[in-house]
Design brief:
This protein is mainly alpha-helical. The chain has helices at residues 2-26, 32-54, 61-88, 96-122, 137-159, 161-189, 194-205, 222-246. The protein has one domain (2-177). The chain is built from eight helices and no strands.
C-alpha cells in the first residue's frame, strides 16, 4: 500500500511540475530551476516512502528510520517550495486563498516534523507494543502523533492540486479549439484569395480520413424535372375527375 502511495505521489509531483513549467512559459513568474529542484526533492521523498515500505522496522531499523527521515524531510521541503511557487504565480494561476491554505499546511507539517525527529532520536528501543509505564512511552506517542500529522498534511496538500489540474485541462481544451479556428481563418487573415482557401478545403475533403459531406446539387437533374412534371399532371387529372364527379348532370 505504501509503495502504491509512493507511486501516486511521484505521478502527482511530475504532473504538477509539467503544469508549472507550461504556466511559466505562458507568463514567466519563477526560475525553472526552482521548479526542478522541488520535483527532485519530492521524488526523493517518494523513494524514502518505498524504503519504509520494503524494509521493516524490526528487521532493519536503521534503514527503515533513514527512509522515513528522507521521506518526511524531503516531503516538507517540497511543500514549502511549492507554496512559494504558488505565491509567485498568484493571482493569474492561483487564488490568494489557495496560496494561504498551502502555506498553512506546509507550516503545520514543518512544525510537526521537528519534534518528530527529536523524539524519535530519544527512543532507545524499537518495538511495536508499548507500555505506558515505560520511560520512552511519551517520546513514542509524541513521535507517532507528529508523524501522522505530517502524513495527513501531505495528503491534504496534494488535494489542493485538483483545482490546478482542472484549470489546466480546461485551458488546454480552449487552446485546441482556438488553434482550429486560427487554422481555418488563416488564409483570409493573410490576404489570400478565396479560391486558394477553396482549393485547400477541397484537398482536405478528398482525404479518406476527412470525408466530404454529401450535399444536394444546386440544379435539378433531368430525371427530377420529368418526375415533377408527371406528378403535376397526375394532380391536375385527379382534380378534374373530382370536379366532374361533383358537377350534377342536367335534367
Amino acid at each position: 500500500m505504501i509503495n502504491f502511495s509512493a507511486f501516486l505521489g511521484a505521478a502527482t509531483m511530475y504532473t504538477r511540475y509539467k503544469i508549472v513549467e507550461k504556466q511559466n512559459q505562458t507568463s514567466y513568474f519563477s526560475t525553472p530551476v526552482f521548479n526542478l529542484v522541488s520535483l527532485v526533492l519530492g521524488l526523493m521523498g517518494c523513494i524514502g516512502m518505498g524504503i519504509v515500505a520494503n524494509f521493516q522496522e524490526l528487521a532493519v531499523p536503521v534503514v527503515h528510520d533513514g527512509g522515513a527521515l528522507l521521506a518526511f524531510v524531503c516531503g516538507v521541503v517540497y511543500t514549502l517550495l511549492q507554496s512559494i511557487i504558488s505565491y509567485k504565480s498568484c493571482p493569474q494561476w492561483n487564488s490568494v486563498l489557495m496560496c494561504h491554505v498551502r502555506l498553512a499546511i506546509s507550516a503545520v507539517s514543518c512544525a510537526a516534523v521537528i519534534p518528530m525527529i527529536a523524539c524519535a532520536s530519544l527512543i532507545s528501543i524499537t518495538k511495536l507494543e508499548w507500555d505506558p509505564r515505560e520511560k520512552d512511552y511519551v517520546y513514542h506517542i509524541v513521535s507517532a502523533v507528529c508523524e501522522w500529522t505530517v502524513a495527513f498534511g501531505f495528503i491534504f496538500y496534494f488535494l489542493t492540486f485538483i483545482q490546478d489540474f482542472q484549470v489546466n485541462s480546461n485551458t488546454s481544451d480552449r487552446s485546441a479549439r482556438k488553434t482550429d479556428i486560427t487554422f481555418l481563418s488563416k488564409p483570409f487573415a493573410q490576404g489570400q484569395p478565396r479560391a486558394a482557401h477553396s482549393r485547400m478545403t477541397a484537398n482536405i475533403s478528398t482525404d479518406k480520413s476527412h470525408p466530404r459531406p454529401k450535399t444536394k446539387p444546386d440544379r435539378p437533374s433531368g430525371l427530377d424535372v420529368f418526375q415533377g412534371s408527371c406528378l403535376t399532371f397526375r394532380k391536375s387529372t385527379t382534380q378534374r375527375g373530382r370536379l366532374t364527379a361533383d358537377d350534377p348532370s342536367p335534367a
